[in-house]
Structure formats: C-alpha cells, structure tokens
Structure prediction request, 928 residues.
Amino acid sequence: MQVALWNVSKCAFHFSSVINTTARCVCVRFLSTYKTSHRQSIMSTVSTPPILHAFDEFRHYDTADYNFHVGAPHPDELMQLSRVIQQTVQDIRAVPSEVQSSYFQYGATKGSDSVLQHLAAFLTQEYRAPVNWQNLMMTAGASHALGLVCNVFFGDHDGVVFLEDPTYFLAAEIFRGFGLKVIPIPKLDNEQYDFPLWKRRLDEGLHGIRADGHFRGLIYIIPLHSNPRGRCLSPEEAAALARFAADENLVIHCDDVYNSLSYTGSIPPRLFPVGSHPNVISAGTFSKILGPGLRVGWLESTKENIDRIALNGIIESGGCANQFGASLIDRMFLNGLLQTYVKNTRNLYKEKMRLAVSILSEHLPNNVIWHKPQGGYFIWLTFPEDYEEFLTNVLVPEAKRRNVHFQLGSRSCASRFCNGLRSTDDAYTCTSGCQNSIRLSIGHLGLSQLPEGLKILCDIIKKR
Amino acid sequence: MQVALWNVSKCAFHFSSVINTTARCVCVRFLSTYKTSHRQSIMSTVSTPPILHAFDEFRHYDTADYNFHVGAPHPDELMQLSRVIQQTVQDIRAVPSEVQSSYFQYGATKGSDSVLQHLAAFLTQEYRAPVNWQNLMMTAGASHALGLVCNVFFGDHDGVVFLEDPTYFLAAEIFRGFGLKVIPIPKLDNEQYDFPLWKRRLDEGLHGIRADGHFRGLIYIIPLHSNPRGRCLSPEEAAALARFAADENLVIHCDDVYNSLSYTGSIPPRLFPVGSHPNVISAGTFSKILGPGLRVGWLESTKENIDRIALNGIIESGGCANQFGASLIDRMFLNGLLQTYVKNTRNLYKEKMRLAVSILSEHLPNNVIWHKPQGGYFIWLTFPEDYEEFLTNVLVPEAKRRNVHFQLGSRSCASRFCNGLRSTDDAYTCTSGCQNSIRLSIGHLGLSQLPEGLKILCDIIKKR
Prediction:
C-alpha cells in the first residue's frame, strides 16, 4: 500500500489502497458533495486524487493558481454554460416527439439538416460572408475533426504533413498516429514561405509513396489567432498557400478554432474560399466559445469533400459523431442562447486580452519581443537567445513557487516533432526561437486574477 | 430548380429550390412544430425532405411501417430516455461547481474516475464478475471505439483483420479506412474454426508486412447475441480464439454491444478474461440500452492496453471522447435512473423477442432454418438455397409494398467485403448461406406492431 500526501490541488483525502470499486465509488460520491476546503479538514492521507478532467491528469492544476498554461475556459465560465445547457434541455420538453426522439437516435452522418442550417446562418453572420449548409458537417470537436480528415484522406496510405513552426503542441501526435511523416513548413529568414525548398521537401518526403488519386499530403495551419503565436495569416500568404496546395495536390487543414474570438470588431475577412476550393478544409469548434466538454464542432469544405468525409466507416456506423451534443447546439441556436453566449464570451475574452496586453506592455522588459494578438487565447513572448536556460531553470520553477504556470515555447516547436526524413542542411533545427519563448494563455484566468499573475511573472523576468 | 414529390415517409412539403440558408432555417423551424400528418396537408411539392437522423438518409424509414431493418430503438423508447436525461440535467444544479464545471471542461482522457468507477460497479453487477475501473475508458460509442483501436494498433502500419461470416455489415468499411486487409475467419464444414487454414491465411495476408512489436492483426467478433445471427460463442470457441490470438500476436476486438440485452435471467458468464488477457479488448456501448444519439460507450482491456489507447493523439488533444455525455451517464448512475432504465429496456426487449419467436414458430414454414436468440436485436432466417431469387425479387418488394422492411443476408456477408488476397480454393466464397438468409431486427418495433409485421412477412413467405 502506497500512501502519500497529495497537495498539488491543496486538498488531500484518503482512498482505499486496494482497488476496490465499491469502496472507491462511495468515496467519490462522498467527495463530490464536499468542497475542496472541507475535504482537507476531513481527510489527510492519500494514494491518488480523483480525476475529474484533463487538467487533473497534468497534476499542476488549481483554480486558485494563476494558470496561463492551459488553453481552456475558466470554471466560472463553464458554470454559466451549465446553466444555459440546463435551460436548453428544459426547452426540449416542448419539442415534438418526432424531432425530440431523433436527438437520441443514430444521427444523420453529417448532422441533422436543422443544425447544419442554423450553423450556416450563424457562420454567415460571424464571417459576414455566406456559408452554405451543404458545405458543413458536425464533428465531435476539432481534434476529432483532424483525426477524421487524416483517416479519410490518409488512413489507407502514407503521406506527408507540413506544420507551421511553432504549432499546436498536440497536433503532431495525431498525424503520427496515422503514420504520416511530419515536416515543418520551410520558411525564409524573412518568415516568407520557401516554396522551392518546400517542393523539394515534399518530393523527398513522398519518396516511395504513391498517391493514386488521393491528396499527396496535408498542410496543417491555424490561420487566425494561432496557437501559440496569436498571429493571423495575411491574405497574400493564404493565397500563396492555396496555389501551392492546388499545384502539388495537397490538402490544407485550417484549425479554425479561435475565429469567433476576434477582438477587433469582427472576424477578419475569410482567408480561403473554403466552400469552393477543393484543397481547403476548415475545422471549427464550440470548445472555445462554449465549452470543450460538449465535444461539438464542424467541418467546412466543398460538398464533394464533405460527402466523402461523411462516408467514413466510423461515421457511417455510428452516425453523427455527437448527435445529442449537436442537437443541444441546434436548440441553442433556436432559443438564441448560443448567439448571446458567444457574444458575451467574445467580450469577456476581448477584455482579458486588453488587460493582459496592457499589463505586459507596462511590465515586460524591452528585450522581450512580442506581438499584441487581435484575438484568440495566446500571447507568445520571445526572449533573447541566451535566455533559454533562465526560462527553464529559473522562470518555470520560480513562477511555480509563486503559483504561476505557463508553457515553454519548446513544447510548440514543430522541429522536435519531425519523424520524417532528416536533412543535412539544418532545415529541421528550430529557427523560430521556440527554445527562448514562452506561451501564455488568457483562457483559464478570471479577469480579477489575470493582472496579479502577469505582474508576478514580469517581476521574476525583470530580476534576471 | 428541381421539384419532385417525395412520399417515402408519407409526408411531402416544399423547400426553397435555391440553397438559401435563411429561408431553409425558417422552413425547418416551421416544420419542426408540425406533425407529419399536418405537413402533408399544408405542403405538396418538394425537393428534399429535411433529414433528422440516420434513417432519413436511408429513405425507407417511417415509424408507421413495420421496420425490421434498422438495429436501433423505437422512437417511443427514446422519448422515455429524453425524460430521463431531462431529469438528470435538472439534478446537475445541485452538483458542486468544481464537479459541475468539469462536465464542460476537457475531460480526462479515459473519462473521470467517478464515471469509470460507477461503470465498473454497474458492469460487475451485470456480469456477476468483477470489473476493475482501471481496465476501463470511456468512448463515443462502439463505432468510435473500433476506429480508435484500429488507429492505436494499426494506424501507422498495415495489418490484417479477420471477420466472422456473416458479420456486422458496417464494420468492414472501418477497417478498410485504415488500409487493413479484410479476410473472413476460415471455418470447417461443421462451423468449427479451421486454425491450420487460418494460420496460412494470416501468413499470406501479412506477406510483406512487418509488425515490429505491434499486434500483427485483429480478430473482430460479436461474441454475445451477434449481429446478424443472434448467436453466442461457446466457452470452448472463445478459449480457442484467445489461445490462437496469443500464439499469433493478434488482438481480439469484442463488439460487446448487446451483452446487457440477455433474456435468460442474466448475462452468460464472461467468455474472455477481458481485464487480464493482453490480446483481448471489449467494446461496450449505451447505444442499445439507452440511446444511440448519446454516443457514449467504453473500452475494457488490460490496464496496459487502456493506457496505450488513452495516449492516442486525438484523445490526448480533445480529452475524453464525449465528456458531457459521459458526465450525464455518471449522474444517471448516481441517481439510479440508468440502472432502472436498463432493467426496463431488457424486460421490454425480452418480451419483444419472446413475441417474435412465438409468431415465427407458429407461422414460418418448416424449411426455414433459424435459431431462437437468447438476447440482442437480431433473428437470422436461412431459407433453402434456391430461395435466393425469391428473397430479392419477391419477398423484398412484396413486403415493402405492405410496409414491411428487413435486411437481406447478403448485406452481412463477410466474403463480399474482402479486399485481401484472392485465393484459388474458394475460401472467399460465402459458405454461410448469406445469400439465402434475411436479418430481422426487433429493436425498432413497438410490442403492438411486431406481431402484425411478422405475420405479413410469414404470409408472403408461405405463398412461395
């Protein structure tokens, strides 16, 4: 029996050491009725704490901390969402039985016409440009969507994936799970795409791989308010990407998860002709604008691509990837709670970002290079090159000691994910300063917590 | 503009011919408040009807019909579920905010400890044998689970899948999506496994494929109350399969979706040592005992296998495949509504099956060979070999004319799915009588509809 004091989340309690289902169930039931502070006084020894959600698995999560690490909403925001969901489920009572029962039946593979049409109307308003419902299908969130696209277009043959550097730190593992070669997008010193080198990398990467009418590879990008840099592609970059993808028979997968969190009055004009360009797919999600636990998102592409994705075996067998979740979304479009919630979330996050930018502008030393994001969750701070050791060995532990958490830039480095060909010309050595950068997420902090947390961080930085 | 009269579901209405999102939304809102019969009188021309769920996509679905085709619950049963979900969501109000907010947060990759422990307690009671919560993880249903297992164990390399013949008619497409070779399990004339031939098939199928520490292939089975035959594996068959899988480094994927629908008093003793045998995975689901639209299921295997599956890139990125759905299940375990619902469902389906068996026993001619299922959804009727043409050309259309629908056995034939090596010794020619069999599902009919539908079917059969 291993008994240890667990105080990461500042609560500690006792669990049966033997894996005894019944005993643990009772324990969980009991605990779930008590607040953290109460638990602390009642129980004192521990083997493992109960895991509620993903961040408990990381063991560095406490809502009282200043958590700039996780790209997820604050629990108070999710309590608002809970109330909206409760009200929406109440509304279901009035829905005619033919429709109501369909919420619990195998869903149409793309989602019901109703939710697709409401989503199209919503996106048309958000983008200020028409979105056709026949270019949409529902998914179980952006990660599911990315896996689905890999499955449909690369599941039964090999291929190459090109990533921005830095990129979303959990994307590469999805690609590797499908046996795809992962290669960073080659760029010139001025941050422009190096298309001639890119073409060579593609040919090298595809050595021995036949495409046979499939896409030859995938370009994975986060075009708006990117993770981790908070940057947007320029229309010129997007146009060049689309041309390259068409010329080389590649598919561009846009992880469009932060689009609705644009803070400049409206979402920037669409960068790609998503519904009409056969080489472009856009994956949206309600994770950041409602809540990640709902697991509802969507794919937008040409009707031909959407039809093909909806024919995937898993979708054909199980129907809509999240039928009840998508049905709740449909009802929330109808009762208007969704539109209001998104507006409020956008305003809240706009204020969080304004506050964060204002504090960092005031307190960060001048040698830190950073860009003020116009939307999304993330701020990317790049320090002088010789700060690498300081970030890892001083800033992380010292900040942690003062209950401030963030993510080292190296986690987002695309070069470290490469499992493709190795090159002799250092193309795979990070040139984006990931090692001397850090990522801050504004998602998980309340407005009242945010200033103090950032001030602590700047305070430690300034001491170097 | 294409205007056509659509009357498959005996309702017809008008849609804007131009794809006009706003207009169609209004149309759907309007329609969703009217019953089919009302719509019919209001509207008379049509382009496409609105799609609510998967069966609308099939275009042969009407709840007034005798639908022995679809393996899904009756809408009235799903209305019961809707009420249970409404009550459960109401209960959420009383849940402490720390726990309540977690329902909408990124879920722990395997699901919360709480839902896993409640599920383990439930399964322990159902199976009358201990199930350890650390051998479980939540999924988004059995189809998602099967795709996930393929992704984790065969996503980045090739492999072979062996299927029972006949088998679940939508499984093969999932395997093909991962580029796996699909081969029927070789059997002797007496229905015993032909292990020597199986070993040869495996070696042929793996020609040129290196496993390198991975499983070499997958055996896909539905051990209890199988789709489509309604049969259970014998303990001896299961033991032989487990030995073969261990010897040949194959993984057995048990689609355990009908286990709780056992009608003989209790679920038969477990056929495989699921939590301890490294070559066995069991996929369960709430689709058949609650509702398919919830998209919640689970995987059970050794902790090592579960840990590996939970490290899948898509799961790592999105968290629990259906966090809110799994949280509802957790609450339904706590308020006891789930256990009661499953008991009621089991009793209802037991009665449906008893009634179906009694009517078929009385009205089917003697030359039809069939087995009385002890659980599940399906009855498999095998006719004399020279009935093939009669089934396709007479029984299907004549039954349809009288509003009775069922599935031809050929849909479930594993041999037709084969994309593996072609053999010269006819091993891939169906030897299971699929061409002269039909599948009846009792799932979608109410008790009151069932007798009349079966009598019509027997009536047509007897006329040959």
